[in-house]
Amino acid sequence: MIKTAEQIQTAIERILPRVAKPGRYVGGEYNEIVKNWDEIDCKVALAFPDIYDLGMSNLGLMVLYDLINKHRNLLAERVYSPWTDMEALMREDGIPLFALESKQAIREFDILGISLPYEQLFTNALNLLDLAGMPIRSQDRDASYPLVIAGGHGCYNPEPMAPFIDLFVIGEGEAAIMEIISVVRATRGMDRETQLRYLAQVDGCYIPRFYDVAYSDDGVVTAITPNMPEAPAKVMKAIVPTLPPPVTDFIVPFIETVHNRGPIEIMRGCTRGCRFCHAGMVARPVRERPVDEVLDAIDAILESTGYEEIALLSLSSSDYTNVLELTEKIGERYGHLGLNISLPSLRIESVSTQLMDNLSKSRRGGFTLAPEAATEKMRRTINKFVPDEQLLETAQAIFERGWRTIKLYFMIGHPMEELEDVQAIIDLAKQVLKKGRQVHGNKASVNVGVSTFIPKPHTPFQWEPMGDSDLLQEKISLLRRKMRGQGVRLRWSDPHESMFEGFLSRGDRRMAEVVGKAWQKGAKFDAWMEHFNAEAWQNALAEEGLDPRFYTHRRRPFTEMFPWEHIDIAVTRKFLGEDYQMSKERATRGDCRDNCYACGILPRLKKLRQGTELDDWKCPPVRKGKSYQPPVPPVPMVEGIPLVVIQ
Predict the structure, then answer these.
(1) What is the average per-residue pLDDT within 531-545?
(2) Is the peptide bond before 620 cis (omega within 30 degrees of 0)?
(3) Distance between CA 179 and CA 187 in Å, rounded?
(4) Tens digits of per-residue pLDDT, 123-163?
(5) At 477, phi and psi to the nearest 5?
(6) Looking at the DSSP assignment, which residues form a beta bridge with residue 452?
(7) Could you tell me which residues are beta bridge partners of residue 148?
(8) Three-class SS of residue 480?
(9) What is the reported pTM?
(10) Strands (E), 315-375
(11) Dmax of the chain from CA atoms?
């Protein structure tokens, strides 16, 4: 096996002419950060387990890259999954997985941080470990290996990956990563078990090996019990009370990536309470960036990258309190540049005519709206009630301001849905198209995206089953049949792939054996339709004696313990259960900016607000004056012996 950075550099130069898009593997991009390897005290490899083209657009990874590299004694470098052609040559020539900046083998880093934003990346994460020359199971890696941590939205139910990861960061990585690094530095030379016992005391850190899971004879989880005194009974998610400064020195890729733009997170969290939305529940509370901070970030991004598009990101960008002021000032400051400003997530009820006028000054792409359902019954069920009249008025105003394409996103498959609810999607899409044709004639178009309902963990619908696969196919056939013709384009998710996502997102620790065996049988790049290996997964499930429908198509009683019961998102089970009961009665809750429904997040935040200048932790909290200074974290202890954390 090739080991040194110099040997790896020479070896990859030899094979690059034989692979597609060699720019994925060379590094050296503009704004890349390279430090002297020998002078750095702690080295972190940040991995996105998919190809460079996708991973380079992941904002979470770039936030950590920026945060860690701001420290003189720390280093963060990037690693992505090599495409199949590159992987084959690496295995053939004995080239280990390497970081782009230094070409050092991942095996040489102190920490390997893996981003898992969605479950289809699980087998790729195992493949990364194997390519790095590391055992895939945590118990087989001692302290001579990098500490393997994972975070992201795919980790709020960590159990299907539990045996493979040393430590999961539950919640927001910015809140935990520096303390994790401090503990790793301070425990250097200790065995892995002792190191993990210290890390278990860091907020948001879940160490799977410190928990035992018990099952009943029928396969239901009956107990999740800590087996170490340092492990809390429930792992509370890590929260940053105030958003850290935005990244501005984005690395400019050599090749085309999925998003060629400068992203700025203007707001985190959501107050709308859509019952199907995992992100809307786990990302609470709402925190907003001041307008001036966003404008300064745009200045810096344009100066450092030359991007021609800025994306103002959040779960619901039109709900940002100062969105009108922000978009108006952007138009005044950058209108002469032809800068494209995108707000990817807009809610119909908060899209005003003034907002559309402000956005129409930038270069136009499509305009995206997500009604999710097309009947009053289903909108009330999912707590996203917007009358058809309001949607059509909004669509007409969009078309009148120059947009020719509107994208509409819907969801099908909820157990309460009937065929007439699906027919209503067709009717509504055609009504929107009619509005466009009145303005633009045949140049108007409507793109309809249809996803399958998945009852995600930590949502009010976590007790619900997925829809029957045969009925889902019937609904998709109806949509395809009735949406044929000029002007309306339909894209849909395959129900079988949705079921795959469902049993991974809802699985217990036994599902980890399925993940491991599926990877051994060749499963990887599961998010890529042409690479999804259904046979590998079916055989792995059969060998473990697990029926995926046990996880996906079974309504859960309120008394049942979920596999993720020990993960605390600070939104209470009581609140989620009440909201679930309300869905059955088609009762809605309003925006919790206007009325607090006691979801549980505020008591958690009160423990974090000491020393802040935030306005009473309303949603959203308003920052006044200087930035938040976090309190000094408690010193981790093992068996009463304190750990002196290196700052």
Answers:
(1) 96
(2) yes
(3) 12
(4) 999 999 999 999 999 999 999 999 999 999 999 999 999 99
(5) -60, -40
(6) 412
(7) 112
(8) helix
(9) 0.94
(10) 340-342, 367-372
(11) 75
Residues 6+ positions from 59 with CB-CB distance below 8 Å:
247, 263, 265, 313
How many residues in the chain?
Answer: 647
DSSP for 174-238 reads: HHHHHHHHHHHHHTTTS-HHHHHHHHTTSTTEE-GGGEEEEE-TTS-EEEEEE-STTS-SSEEPB
Tell me the H-state helices in 94-136. Answer: 122-131
Confidence of residue 237 (pLDDT cuts 50, 70, 90): very high
Helices (H), 136-186: 173-186
Rounded-to-integer distance, Cα 392 and Cα 406, Å: 11
**Exposure on the CB side of residue 290, measured as CA atoms within 13 A:** 13
**Rounded to 5°, angle at Cα 354 from 352 and 358:** 120
Tokens of 546: 């697990």
Rg of the chain taking only CA atoms, in angstroms? 25
**Residues 156 and 278: beta-carbon distance below 8 Å:** yes
Alpha carbon 615 to its chain centroid, in Å, reads 28
What torsion, rounded to 10 degrees, do the Cα atoms 7, 10, 16, 22 define? 80
Q: Tell me, what amino acid is at 534?
A: A
Higher per-residue confidence, 318 vs 362? 318
Q: How many CB atoms lie within 10 A of CB 593?
A: 14
Buried (b) or exposed (e) across 11-37, using 16+ Cβ within 10 A?
bbeebbeebebbbbbebebeeebebeb
| DSSP label at residue 56 | T
Alpha-carbon gap, residue 115 to 46, rounded angstroms: 8
Tokens of 264: 């700025």
Task: Tell me which H or E stretch contains 304.
Answer: helix 291-305
Rounded to a whole number of angstroms, the distance between the first and last alpha carbons of the chain is 36
CA dist 497 and 511 (Å) reads 17
Q: Whose structure tokens read 């607000």? A: 609
CA distance 23 to 29: 9
Average of per-residue pLDDT across 378-398 = 94
Question: Which residues sit opposite 151 in a β-bridge?
Answer: 115, 169
Distances (CA, A) of 298 to 174, 253, 291, 305, 322: 21, 19, 11, 10, 16
DSSP 298: H
